[in-house]
Every structure is written in C-alpha cells, then in structure tokens.
Amino acid sequence: MPAFPRTRLRRNRQTDWSRRLVRENRVTVDDLIWPVFVVNGDTPRVPIPSMPGVERLSLSALVDAAGQAAELGIPALAIFPVIDPAHKTLDGAHAGDPDNLVCRAVRAVKAAVSDVGVICDVALDPFTTHGQDGLLVDGEIVNDPTLEALARQSLNQAAAGCDVIAPSDMMDGRIGFIREALDEAGYQRVQILSYAAKYASAFYGPFRDAVGSRKALGGGDKRTYQMDPANGDEALREVALDIEEGADMVMVKPGMPYLDIVRRVKEQFGLPTYAYQVSGEYSMLMGAAERGWLDGPAVMLESLLAFKRAGADGVLTYAAVDVARRLKAG
C-alpha cells in the first residue's frame, strides 16, 4: 500500500539546486530599463526626498551613470528632464528646441557610451506651465493639435540620437502620427515604445516631485486622456490601436497594481510588453525598507519576478542598478 500522498510537490523544493532546476521565471539584467532624471546645473547629484536612493543627475553625472549601466549590462536608460521653469510655457514649445535639456542629455550619453540604448519620453508635461501632457485650450486638452507638437518633439529627440521614442501622453492617434513623421524624416530605425495602457493613477506622486510638475498641475488631473483604473477591456483596445499604428513595443503603467493587464496584453498580442514600476510603487517598498519593516533587496527582486511571471519582457525600475549589482554578484 503506497504512502499517502503519492504526489508530493515539496520534493522539488527541498534543496536549493532542485528549486533552481524547476524555476519557471527568472529576473536577469537584460530585463531592466533604468529611468533617470537629468537637471541643469553644476551640482552632480541632488537627492529626491520622496524617492529613497534616487537622485537628479547633472549632465556629467548622467554620463557617468550611463557608463555604470553599460558596465552592469543594463540594456537601456529612460531619460526624464527636470526643466527650468523659465523654459515652461502654455504650449510647451521648448520640447521642440534642439538645445533643450533632453537633447543635450541624449547627445552626451550617445557620445560617451555606445552600447546602452536611450529611451526618450514624449509628452508635453515637463515643458508646460500647466503640467498637462497635451495642449490646453479653454480648459480642455485638445487632441489633434497636440499630435503636431508631439511629432515635433519626437523628431527633435530623434535628431539628437534617441534610439527609442516612448509616447506617454495618451492622445488618440499619436503613435501613427509620430511613426509617419519619423519615417518621412528618415528615422525609420527609431523604435516606438508606446505607453499603450497608461492609467490615471495615484501612484505617480513622487515622479511629479522629481520633475517638478506636481506644483504646475496644481489641483488638475489627467483623467480625460489617461485610462480609468477600473477598466481592463479598454486597455486591450488601446494596445490594439497602437500596434496597428506602428508601435514596436508596448507598455503598461503603473506596474504591480495592473499585473492582470500585463498578462492580458502579452497573451493576446505577443508583442514585446513592458511594465513600469512607477515612483509610488518604488517609494513604498524602499520607504518601508528604510524603516526596517521590509527586507528591501528581497521585496524588490520579488516584485520584479512578479512582473516576469505576469508576462512582462522587461521592467522600468528605479532600482535597476542595485538589482543589476546583486544579480551580477549571484
């Protein structure tokens, strides 16, 4: 009479080597995209109080950071600018200036480091006095005129050497409009990573502190163009449209509160699918770790593993460097 139970799943868990053999998902350095903040000025690094361990970087510090990413094998940086208020206007026209902070940062990184990809956000909010991602007319974010501004911004960044254009604005039709503009200007090789399912989330607060847009936005919100957190089916429609318009890769943002969306997008479309572990997610984990409530490295790796298990091909995370170091160290 065989002992009960015959099937014992714990057998595969009883040793480290066995657990490694049967492991279904892994986080590697190749899964990491590092979002970085760049600011004008001579101070190399300025801490961001609401994002433990994250700093605004001067251009020279950004170049050093890119070299560090290359040494660790991190595939790409995503550059976000902290724009001087003197350059902010109602129409965000500075986004099209070839000498703006983003373009100077891209040129500096590409001149110094050849084997790290550079991703540029496309949206007007860093450049507008009102903090909205699009053009504001009579209190309304106008869609089609914004597309023209986003195309100018994209061409400007492509000319500076950006490898991947990442529209995060959530205007209707912007992927096709930008793709056509890039192709007509000879930038067929520039990739588009679409923030295809970007939600009007409460998890963005520390990011807005980092780039200085919280005060500009004031009591406003972005609910007329970013997605309602209650909706899932709508995300699939957004992704389908962006793919049809020419997106090479798609992103879900935020990340962990929307793992169900990551899974549905990956299963339905099979396109390279990324998730953004946004500032609020990162700061919750790191803030708890600072207080000794959580094991910071352990929960960070576990959270990234959750993205992989859900189907993400990679993750934008502010912890990319720390995670890469730990992975390299084994």
What's the helix and strand layout?
Blueprint: H1 16-22, E1 32-39, E2 45-47, E3 55-57, H2 59-72, E4 76-82, H3 101-112, E5 117-122, E6 135-137, E7 140-142, H4 143-160, E8 164-167, H5 174-184, E9 191-198, H6 205-211, H7 214-217, H8 233-245, E10 249-253, H9 259-269, E11 273-276, H10 279-290, H11 296-310, E12 314-316, H12 320-329
Parallel strand pairs: 1-3, 1-4, 1-12, 4-5, 5-8, 8-9, 9-10, 10-11, 11-12
Antiparallel strand pairs: 2-3, 6-7
Helix pairs in contact: 2-3, 3-4, 4-5, 5-8, 8-9
Question: What do these coordinates show?
Answer:
The chain has 330 residues and is an alpha/beta fold. It has one domain: Alpha-Beta Barrel (TIM Barrel), CATH 3.20.20.70. The protein has 12 helices and 12 strands. It has an 8-stranded parallel beta barrel with strand order 1-4-5-8-9-10-11-12, surrounded by 8 helices. A two-stranded antiparallel sheet has the order 6-7. Helix 8 packs across helix 9. The mean pLDDT is 96.
Output the CATH topology: TIM Barrel
Please summarize the sheet with the most strands.
8 strands, parallel, barrel
The domain count comes to 1
Count of β-strands: 12
The CA-CA distance between the termini, in Å, is 44 Å
Tertiary shape: globular
According to CATH, the homologous superfamily is Aldolase class I
Low-confidence stretches: none
How do the strands line up in the largest sheet? 1-4-5-8-9-10-11-12
CATH-level-2 architecture = Alpha-Beta Barrel
Specify Rg, calculated over alpha carbons.
Answer: 21 Å
SSE sequence, one letter per element: HEEEHEHEEEHEHEHHHEHEHHEH
Summed over residues and divided by their number, the pLDDT gives a mean of 96
The total of helices stands at 12
Relative helix content: 40-55%
